[in-house]
Design a protein that fits this description.
The protein is an alpha/beta fold. Helices cover 40% and strands 12% of the residues. The radius of gyration is 21 Å and the shape is globular. The structure holds thiamine diphosphate.
Length: 327
């Protein structure tokens, strides 16, 4: 949690210093959810995420330097600098991408669960899929289509609604006829529950139960976690829609200092150890920025190295803005 906090605060700073371009969405305020969920996943499980993906990538084991380099758009980034903040991908740790299209991750995640089901018999060795989505995403058609198929075909998948209360600036109450989002599982006979996303231990227990259902019972599961993002939708959103009172509450419920003091109070950790963890996190993030800074930018001639269009014999590769080719 401390590392995600340090990384995200630094990413915000790097964006403001124009080291990062494009979009940049942070996990600030969602650290307990991230750590709880990721600690329940096995190495061979597949993870599909939305664009708010930095903390998941780091917790899943990706090198923070390579994640920062991706944010900087550099060749040593986890996606070779082509994806940026929203599109972290690493097959090795089975992080099957962050998706920028709202709900875009749901169909491929459901397809991955179908592939697993096709290849493996139900036993505790089976892999499972975890698919993350925001509260706003529960109104997207792909959410309902995916849950319907997963429920119908008994696919080994856990859908997790990371309910941070807002889809951009719109509250759940203003956008959802059924604001108890986990209840949407009932329409597809998918078991579901809602837990406090500010407590990593609670999230972990709930995720373990959900994954067990997917893996062993061959029933998909819908888990909802409640937390709040501390900042705006992305780093360029000043979050003017929040009142002073709401900002005060956010600070009081901030999961990082809360968990830190819970561990100290219960004597699981001393103040000194907590400080050492924070210092270590800062050191890792310093190194990550230094690594990203040193990594070269991709060259323009590499632009088409990773496209998946079929080559047309004799047709030159076109750059956006090039004059139309006439034959
Ligand atoms: C199909 C589509 N529609 C709209 C957008 C613009 N958009 C980006 S994020 C977002 C809000 C999503 O909110 P939520 O699912 O709650 O995720 P959160 O940002 O809270 O993690 C919208 C509308 C988009 N990227 N894709």
């Amino acid at each position: 949690m401390a590392l995600i906090r340090a990384f995200e605060l630094r990413a915000q700073e790097m964006y403001q210093r124009a080291k990062i371009g494009g979009y940049c969405h942070l996990n600030l305020g969602e650290e307990a959810t991230v750590v709880g969920l990721m600690s329940a996943l096995r190495a061979k499980d597949y993870l599909f995420a939305n664009y708010r993906v930095h903390g998941y990538a780091i917790t899943r084991g990706l090198d923070p330097g390579e994640v920062m380099a991706e944010l900087f758009g550099r060749t040593d980034g986890v996606s070779g600098g082509w994806g940026g903040s929203m599109h972290l991908f690493d097959e090795g740790v089975r992080l099957m991408g962050g998706y920028g299209i709202v709900g875009g991750q749901l169909p491929p995640a459901t397809g991955a669960a179908l592939a697993i089901d096709y290849e493996q018999k139900a036993d505790d060795k089976s892999d499972a899929v975890m698919c993350l989505l925001g509260d706003g995403t529960t109104a997207i058609g792909a959410f309902h289509e995916s849950l319907n198929i997963a429920g119908l075909w008994n696919l080994p998948i856990v859908y997790v609604i990371i309910n941070n209360g807002l889809g951009m600036g719109t509250t759940v109450d203003a956008s959802s006829a059924e604001p108890d989002l986990y209840k949407r599982g009932a329409a597809y006979r998918i078991p579901s529950t809602r837990v406090d996303g500010n407590d990593p231990d609670t999230v972990r227990k709930a995720a373990e139960k959900a994954l067990k259902s997917a893996r062993e019972d061959r029933r998909p599961y819908l888990l909802e976690t409640t937390s709040e993002r501390l900042k705006g939708h992305s780093v360029v959103d000043p979050a003017k829609y929040r009142t002073d009172e709401e900002n005060k509450e956010l600070k009081e419920n901030d999961p990082v200092p809360l968990y830190r003091s819970t561990l100290i109070k219960s004597r699981a950790m001393t103040k000194k150890q907590a400080q050492e963890i924070d210092d270590e996190a800062e050191r890792i993030v310093d190194d990550a920025v230094a690594f990203a800074d040193k990594s070269p930018s991709p060259k323009p001639e590499q632009l088409f190295d990773n496209d998946y269009s079929t080559a047309v014999a004799g047709a030159p590769k076109q750059m956006p803005g090039d004059p139309l080719i006439t034959f």
